[in-house]
Amino acid sequence: MTRKKEKLQELPEVSVSDDGEVRHLHLGTPWIQGSMRIDEPFALELEYVQRMMAWLLFADLAQVSKGHAMQLGLGAGAITKFCHKKLRICSTAIELNPQVLAVCRQWFKLPPDGPKLRVVLADAAKEIQNPMWLGTVDALAVDLYDHEAAAPVLDSPDFYADCRALLSDTGCMTVNLFGRASSFDRSLQSMAQAFGSDALWAFKPTREGNTVVLAQRTPSRPKRAELAEQAEAIQARWDLPTTKWLRAFKPVAS
Fold first, then answer.
1. Nearest alpha carbon to residue 218 among 184, 252, 168
2. Is residue 32 part of a domain?
3. Per-residue pLDDT tens digits for 17-42
4. How many other CB atoms sit within 10 Å of the CB of residue 12?
5. First CA to last CA distance, the chain
6. What is the pLDDT of residues 141-155, one digit of tens each?
7. Residue 35's beta-bridge partner residues?
8. Which CATH number characterizes residue 67's domain?
9. What mean pLDDT comes out for the span 126-137?
10. Which residues contact 113 (CB under 8 A, 6 or more apart)?
11. 149: which of 14, 35, 105, 205 is 20 to 30 A away, CA to CA?
């Protein structure tokens, strides 16, 4: 048996469940690893996934569709589909498990690859070191959990330094963390080591405990009034609950 086949056999089994109007993705356990509202397949169903779009608060909204969004970890394809279908932005997803890609295409309405959408089957830690990606990403979403969903799979200062190298000068990274987990402070320290503490923003945890942290390639401190105006524009254009985000979103180093 080849090493590649051994690696594939170690990956968890991917399954799908329907709960009324919502479809869920599972990786070998009852843990929900992604969700989709069946009659709105390109909307963002989960609150923390909506918050992964917080980079829009710092973006030039008139230029969004000309940028490049990258997702590390495909999940149920929610972020990739939203970026591709709603934002009309060039989107790249890096996913290790070919089963996840197959299930997303069959059950979660993930469109086929095309000029502005591609899924790369690869180990994210290695793929992001590919020189072709450096400095090209305006919005990087990191949501890398194993089937036990206990802690991020990739979470070191070196990994976050590689993520920072992907970003354009005005680019942002958003990361899904479990805010009540013991690993949270360690994750924050790793990000601060790579980006600088003045580059970090964080949401309060969702009811489920997910905390989205945002890191800017180039730190900025827009005034609250400017963020509020931007949030209103985002909500009007893409129907994200951005105006209420500002009550739960602030710089880590205030």
1. 168
2. no
3. 999 999 999 888 878 888 999 999 99
4. 16
5. 54
6. 998 865 455 556 788
7. 24
8. 3.40.50.150
9. 97
10. 119
11. 105
pTM beyond cutoff 0.90: yes
Pairing of strands 68-72, 90-95: parallel
**Is 3 contained in some domain?**
no
Residue burial 129-151, b: 16+ Cβ < 10 Å; e: rest: eeeebeeebbbbbbbbbbbeeeb
Residue 199 sits in which domain range? Answer: 46-251
